[in-house]
Amino acid sequence: MPDPAVASFFKERKDGWLKKNIKPAMDDGQVNEIHRECERQFSLEEWLPKAARRAGQISISTHPCTFTHPGAKKNKNGDSTTIIARAESRSDGFLRSGNVQVQDDALGNAAALDVYKFLSLVLEDGRPLLKHLEENTELAKEQLSIQSESYTELRNGFLAMTETGSENITSSKIKQVYFPVDSDYHLLSLLTPSGIVFDLRKRLDTLRFGDEVKRARDAKRSNEHYQQGYREIYGLTTLGYGGTKPQNISVLNNQNSGKAHLLLSAPPVLKQRTMHFPKHDFFSQSVRYHDCRELFQNLHTLYQKDDNNVRVRAARDEFYLGALDYIVERMWQLKDVASEQYNPEYHHLPKSQKIWLLGDEEHEQIRKSSDDWLEDIQASTVTFIFHGYEKILGKKAIKLGDAEHRHMKNLIQQHREVLR
Question: Given CA atoms 278, 282, 288, 294 in this order, what sign does their dihedral have?
């Protein structure tokens, strides 16, 4: 008795054939004749022997050469070798043949794809018919027992689909690389593990377009709570194999409409470092006079005025404190990256600057218990402002005297707490 999968296969074939051949203008006699012809063509006695003879037009392969080039299956020596990889499964952490269970692919004459589908039928015991044929089981004998031809002849015909040939023959159309082995090279032909490729597509499509995912997306669009979340896969690339004739590439390619997905494979995008922790001195490596150019130019305009009233002096002090704000801002930026960038082997800062910039517990205690370090930072801040004006204005700068230097020092002293 035919297995339910086998019975369903032939029913599907009959329905499709009848739909194609019965025309509305036919009378009952013609329709009955078409039905009889259908039963004859798709009877086991008629179909199985023809299918067994056509099986050799299809080759089972785990790595079809046609994914590189549709014409790679033929070369001047004949057919390229069909590869069936049966690698051992190992816990080596690699996604490779043997470590994943995927469906075998097939390539060859597209007109014989129905034979491949027949042999791929999963019987009641959960195993495909082809596997039963390879193991010569009783269930295989039961499904292929007919009077018009012996089981052995049918089996041999169908198993021609799994023959790989005695010689390894490649094709000039297959991409090849020289791979170093010891002091020599092996010339390797690169083939596509189509079972893995399309299993990846199936998993990605389920992850992206499954029923649960659709419901979760609908809830998000409606701003509604949905207990089961969903994930997105970004940066996918879709490849097309075979153009308008995906069946010319392989069976799995035809079943997937010639489309396969590639995950994003790109070097990591490194975060550009805008802050570099100083190695020797904060005031020469982490702050620049140029950043305060506008401030010093406005200060110069103020110096050129003949007035020396309270308002002018207040404006002058605002410019000095603007430079102080710039130094404080850079200080806090460096504190944020100190834990990542500071390395005592490469950074040889003055002790006062280590206490000032490093946020570890040891230097935190020193900052709170002593002000000696702060005196050095104040002095360097005054020097930065004093010389910064002269550097930016150059020959145009008005020569500042000791009195102005003392005023800067007193002003910074009054606002020293912002430097802690």
Answer: positive
Quick one: tokens of 188? 């390797």
Burial status of residue 328 (CB atoms within 10 A of its CB: 0-12, 13-18, 19 or more): middle
250 backbone φψ class: left, alpha, beta (φ>0; ψ -120 to 50): beta
Beta-bridge partner residues of 180: 185
- Closest listed residue to residue 322, CA positions, set 292, 288, 282: 292
Q: Which residues 6+ apart lie within 8 Å of 69 measured at CB?
A: 171, 173, 174
Beta bridge partners of 181: 184
The total of other beta-carbon atoms located within 10 Å of residue 416's CB is 16
Distance (Å, whole) CA 353 – CA 350: 5
In the chain (420 residues long), the average pLDDT of successive 10-residue segments reads: 87 91 88 91 91 88 87 59 84 88 84 87 89 90 88 90 73 87 90 91 90 88 85 89 88 91 87 85 94 94 87 92 95 90 90 91 86 93 94 92 92 91
| CA-closest candidate to residue 74, choices 167, 175, 172 | 172
